[in-house]
Design goal:
Blueprint: H1 11-27, H2 37-42, E1 51-56, H3 63-66, E2 74-79, H4 86-97, E3 103-109, H5 113-124, H6 132-148, H7 154-172, H8 174-181, E4 186-193, E5 198-205
Parallel strand pairs: 1-2, 1-3, 3-4
Antiparallel strand pairs: 4-5
Length: 208
């Protein structure tokens, strides 16, 4: 459990703390750390999160809750289907290069609506309207990669999408690639199971 003056310094320590928090959440024994007035006051002038979580916007996927952390513990970036865009890349680079966060978590989940939409569009050839199409277009390469491995169901396609997203971050951002190569940070690809509340590691870049 973290406090104002101590936080994980390595990717492995950060992942261990998140794993402990998720285990508490699964069993219903959450500690709700760092959620009091003292913690709030200590963070007025600065922040020092120990992880950045890039996850889906789904309302069932609240990062601070499922990992049982509090104010100032995690830097959270969310888009539907955890799709990458320039704002996401800038936010992740800021968390690593400015805030010195030692761990990036890519967080997908089963029954993902955005991934389902991409699968449906792939099967039918019909694209959704408006900017939903933009989301589907960014997820479709993961659907194609899943199909190459004979994966057609939504939940296992989500796993593939998490893996593809993790690899894509390293391809698109020289800053993040350098940080992982130097061991300053690592990327953990994680899928969340809605029924059990469990966050499962499905891939990683760097040492955990």
């Amino acid at each position: 459990m973290t406090d104002v003056d101590h936080r994980p310094q390595t990717p492995a320590e950060a992942w261990d703390l998140l794993t402990q928090g998720n285990a508490r959440f699964v069993t219903g024994e959450t500690a709700h750390p760092n959620q009091n007035a003292e913690r709030r006051d200590a963070l007025v002038n600065s922040q020092s999160p120990f992880a950045v979580i890039f996850g889906c916007s789904d309302s069932r996927l609240a990062a601070e809750i499922i990992f049982d952390v509090g104010l100032g513990d995690v830097f959270v970036v969310r888009t539907a289907g955890q799709v990458i865009d320039p704002a996401v890349l800038g936010s992740l680079e800021y968390s690593v290069d400015v805030l010195n966060v030692p761990l990036i978590v890519i967080l997908g989940h089963d029954s993902c609506g955005a991934v389902t939409a991409a699968i449906d569009a792939y099967r039918s050839g019909d694209m959704p309207p408006g900017y939903i199409r933009n989301l589907v277009e960014r997820i479709t390469p993961s659907v194609v990669a899943a199909r190459r491995n004979d994966v057609e169901d939504v939940d296992n396609t989500v796993v593939e999408h998490v893996k593809q997203t993790s690899a894509r971050l390293l391809e698109m951002s020289g800053s993040l690639n350098d940080a992982v190569a130097a061991g300053r940070t690592a990327i953990a690809g994680v899928t969340y199971h809605l029924a059990e509340g469990k966050a499962e590691l499905v891939s990683h870049h760097g040492d955990l």
